[in-house]
From TrEMBL:
This is FAD-binding oxidoreductase. The keyword Manganese does not apply. GO terms for cellular component: cytoplasm. Residues 4-331 form the FAD dependent oxidoreductase domain. It comes from the Bacteria.
Length: 363
């Protein structure tokens, strides 16, 4: 069988890239081993246009948010099901100092596209502990990532465009015109493996840091159904009927997929600091996200093997970043534009040459 692209990995990044390439008329084969606790499947699916403690607009936000909205809207129209839930994010000030930091940061700047309101005292929402107020962020929300992946996976299976198996690197052959994999021929192959790229002999030199994140599902005794997402150290995402997703922890020292009592305790305490009321834990998951030290994705074609590329490293920002970057990368792969330097793996080519030198010394 002949394809234009093989996409290895069908988490959030791989699924969105494969869908984008297919929408442009390319014949795409996806190879992915089904895995319930992949980082994408346990993620809360947050889209937040304002970055954490720094009180800064997320990188390229004016471009990324409209592209994400358009992509998820198109999927919802196709499947007749709501996947992305537009909700404001109430970022609660932890201290008066944090409130002052925001007031100084926002003075004289135009935040009207992303900040609905600033509160310097509690907004008196039932059950919410916010004595110092906070900011209400608009144009945010959350994606039901697992539901999107399930529907796209079913589509691929029905069209026989998915191999549900672990990619076997020993079966990959590079040719002058592309790649061969088992009995399959393709012009190009893109690795979208998340943190597992650290074991990829072609891209192991990339500075990706596997980072473990744990997430809880909790059920409150009161049937709370707030109209916003809460953020203070963690995100608290309302799923309705008093059910919330709470996450996530960050642990780069122990990047495994095991849940821990420490993770459950940390998330439970963080939840109590936002909603101090009775609850029980009804779910606990862990996944490993692909973080990059400069907080920019890793996208581009291999410096020596032009039939191989990588699309990775979006960390916790995949819901926001992936739709636009997939389209941008598809343009570059078609020769219609150049990749923006901020995401291009060429910024780390020096690491590749060091890696090759080290490999040669070991031979």
């Amino acid at each position: 069988m002949n394809y234009d692209f093989i996409v290895v990995g069908h988490g959030l990044a791989g699924a969105i890239l494969a869908e984008t390439l297919r929408s442009r008329g390319n014949k795409v084969l996806v190879i992915d081993e089904p895995k319930e606790n992949s980082a994408s499947r346990v993620a809360a699916g947050l889209l937040n246009p304002v970055a954490g403690k720094r009180f800064a607009k997320s990188w390229l936000v004016d471009t990324l948010v409209p592209a994400a909205d358009a992509f998820y809207d198109a999927l919802e129209a196709r499947y007749g099901r709501e996947l992305f839930f537009h909700k404001p994010i109430y970022k609660i000030f932890s201290t008066i100092e944090e409130q002052n930091t925001w007031m100084a940061k926002s003075a004289g700047s135009n935040w009207s596209d992303y900040i609905e309101a600033t509160y310097t005292q509690t907004i008196n929402q039932p059950g919410v502990d916010d004595p110092f107020g906070g900011i209400m962020i608009k144009r945010g929300g959350f994606l039901h990532v697992f539901a999107m992946l399930d529907m796209l996976t079913e589509d691929l299976l029905q069209q026989k465009l998915l191999l549900p198996e672990r990619f076997d690197m020993s079966q990959l052959q590079l040719t002058e015109t592309g790649v061969n994999y088992k009995t399959i021929t393709s012009k190009h192959l893109v690795f979208c493996e998340g943190y597992q790229v650290v074991n990829n002999p072609y891209f192991a030199w990339l500075p990706l840091q596997p980072t473990k994140g744990e997430v809880l599902e909790v059920q409150t005794a009161q049937n709370l159904s707030p109209e916003c997402i809460y953020n203070k150290a963690v995100y608290v995402v309302p799923e309705g009927g008093g059910r919330f997703i709470v996450g996530a922890t960050y642990d780069w020292r122990n990047p495994n997929e095991e849940t821990t009592p420490q993770g459950a305790d940390e998330l439970s305490e963080r939840f109590r600091q936002i909603l101090p009321q009775e609850f029980k834990v009804t779910g606990h998951w862990a996944g490993i996200r692909p973080a990059v030290r400069d907080r920019r994705p890793l996208v581009g074609t291999h410096p020596n093997y032009k039939q191989l590329s990588v699309f990775n490293g979006m960390g916790s920002k995949g819901v926001l970043m992936a739709p636009y970057l997939a389209s941008h990368f598809a343009d570059a792969l078609a020769g219609q534009s150049e990749l923006m330097p901020e995401i291009h793996i060429s910024r780390y080519f020096s690491l590749y040459y060091d890696y090759i030198k080290h490999q040669n010394l070991q031979l």
